[in-house]
Structure formats: structure tokens, C-alpha cells
Amino acid sequence: MIEKDKRNSKIVLTILLALLVVSVIGNFYLYNSSFKTGAILLEEKALLDAEIYDWAVNEDNPTELFFTYFVYNYGNVEAKNVKIKCTLYDEDGTGVMTSVVDNFGNLASKSYKLGEAVTKDVTNSFDYYTSLCHVESCDNCEILYKRIPELVEVYE
User: Fold this and answer.
1) 119 CB contacts (<8 Å, ≥6 apart)?
2) Which stretches within the chain are classed as H helix?
3) 51-100, pLDDT tens digit by residue?
4) 7: helix, coil or strand?
């Protein structure tokens, strides 16, 4: 009788162990499949910022003004159709002297690149001015300065 009880308890223990293994494998599968599905549903965006590097008047053609700027992509996806706006302000920083929007193009994820914008028909003399460049627009991206209320006031 004792051997029969030992055999029954081994069978019960084996069944419980098998159920535990099946449960662990099932939970692992469900967790991984829902995690992958969730990752696919999340929309990743590029995170862009731009900053002015320099500006200068074209010595060969004084009606042209060059803006040189850096564009940064802090995101994990490529930014597409990036447009950069560069503006030259008067010495007080209140009046716009000239402005240009440059069709920069695409920028790979986690990268930066130097760009140049040219504006024509400039007739002012440029001695003491302030310049700014920022991301105007892009596809599938978030623009970094829009996260900072003080900068939104400056750029828009």
C-alpha cells in the first residue's frame, strides 16, 4: 500500500511539474509576442535640432548671403524632407533683415551634418547682426526646440 501511494504521488508530482513547464513556456511565448507587437505599434520619430555655424556675404556677389548650419538627429529613425530656416536679425535682435528656408533633404538616424543656405537679393550692409537657424519642418520627426517654451517664442 505504501508503494502504491508513492507511485501515485510521483504521478501527481510529474503531472504538476509538466503543467508548470507548459505554463512557463506559454507565458514566455505570450510575453515575447506581445512585446514584439507592441514595439511594432510604437511610432518612432526622428528628433531634430539645428544651430547656426556661421554666416557671410559672398565676396564675389554682394547680393548673396550664405548661412552655414549643423543639423542634428538624436532619434533612432531617418528624418525625411528636412527644411531649415535661417534668419538674420538686426543688431537689436528685433527686426528681420533677411530669411531663407533651405530644403536640406534627409538625415540618417543618430547623426549630424553640415548644411548651407543661400539667400539672394540682399541689399543691406552687414556689420552687427545676429543670425539663427532652426528646423522649420520635416516628415516623421519631432523638432527639439518645440519642447522648450522659451525657444518656441524666439523661433515662431
Assistant:
1) 64, 65, 67, 86, 98, 99, 100
2) 2-41, 149-155
3) 999 988 888 888 888 999 999 999 999 999 999 999 888 777 777 788 89
4) helix
Enter the C-alpha cell of residue 109.
538616424
Whether the CB-CB separation of 142 and 79 falls below 8 Å is answered with: no
Cell digits of residue 57? 556675404
Compute the C-alpha angle 80/48/139, nearest 5°. 30
Of 131, 129, 134, the C-alpha closest to 152 is: 134
Quick one: cell of 80? 525625411
List Cβ neighbours of 144 (8 Å cut-off, separation of 6 or more): 47, 48, 49, 74, 135
pLDDT of 138 over the 90 cut: yes
What's the one-letter identity of residue 135? V
**CA gap 101, 85 in Å, rounded:** 4
Return the residue matching grid coordinates 550692409.
125
Contact 155, 48 (CB under 8 A): no
